[in-house]
Amino acid sequence: MSSRIIDRVIAEIDRAADEIVALTVDLVRIPTINPPGEAYEPSARLIGDWLKRAGFDVDFIVADGRPEHTSRFPRVNVMGARRGATRGPVVHFNGHTDVVPAGDGWTIDPFAGVVRDGRIYGRGVCDMKAGLAAAMFAAEALRRAEVPLAGTIEISGTVDEESGGFAGVAWLAERGRIANGRTDFVIIPEPLDVDRICIGHRGVYWFELLLTGRIAHGSMPFLGVSAIDAMGRVLEAIRTDLQPALAARSTAMPVVPVGARHATINVNGIDGGQPVDGIQTPCVADKCRAVFDRRFLIEEGFEASKGEIEALVRRAIGATPGVASSIRDLMIVHPVVTPDGSPLVAALDREIRRVLGRPATLVASPGTYDHKHVARIAGVPHCVAYGPGALELAHQPDEWCGIDDLVSSTKVMALTTLDLMGILAG
Ligand SMILES: [Zn+2]
Q1: Which of 189, 309, 310, 360 is the least crowded, having the fewest Cβ atoms under 10 Å away?
Q2: Distance between CA atoms of residues 371 and 177, nearest Å
Q3: How far is the CA of 162 from the centre of ligand 1 (A)?
């Protein structure tokens, strides 16, 4: 029984390969560039109309009230649900519709949807319009194969993942559209490769450090206190003390690339004294600001990571009388990890083996993505990222996704849905 269902579903997906490519191309041709958040509405309409034709009940969910939702750049999300004949788990596929700007270095039109040599090219193909198309056709193949569902398939296309996802997945989660108690499993088809399952990410702590000294005449700097000199001491302490300490810590999470298995810190920017392009006056810099990006490990935790920074700043400027410091938190994202023994990971692993003939590799992401909102706001523990395309190609010029991987991942998603609904057992 179950092997006949599997054969039918696989055959439907192979037959639909050109349609999956065409849907990906259609999505890529809508330039949903973020920032500023262009063309979200036509993108949501395309997905919503497609889902309606595929038998889904569809809602458009607008992030009314978020400051980034404007009449010029409306934040429009779409969500569809297709309920089965019998009750069972709710399996939710979520893809972000926004893409980062094309940038320089392209050899083809980034929004033409060029298909060549078994690949689809374009901005947002791998991150993550191919993944969204795969999820849509995973559901469609189950319909065409006339498999009676024991549960519900949901598909959402959401905005702003690249800028934090607050008007997107966070908005849906805050409104209970993705929620513990109604959503059992969430699969986010980010480009993690066709045989890898991403179980979470490190934490993020962005902060601004402001150092204040005392202004004085630049010909007599010894009469003032330079905030830039003080920042130099902080940067030196980061380089000589903190960075080696962070590099010595590693997480048990399978973060890729391996270098990101350690804690890290990066200086995003620095600003002190007079604007260097302006007319110069002889003044000691009384202010210097820098913004830092600290990625912390689940084993470190946020409080300890922040406390370590505060202590470092105190030590670095402690010997300099007249310098004051303040730290302002800009963004805090706690690490997330799918629980050990999650049935979602087990099902995906089984179906990756079935479709590709090799075991899945568990990975974690060096950066954050919408998993955080699913875990933290919606409270749904069983969430992973799984989708076609290579992470290294995301945000690059000439971004592409291989058609073979696109089709394989569609099969994995379709069979995983049935696996989670218990349809493949026995
Ligand atoms: Zn993405």
Answers
A1: 310
A2: 15
A3: 7
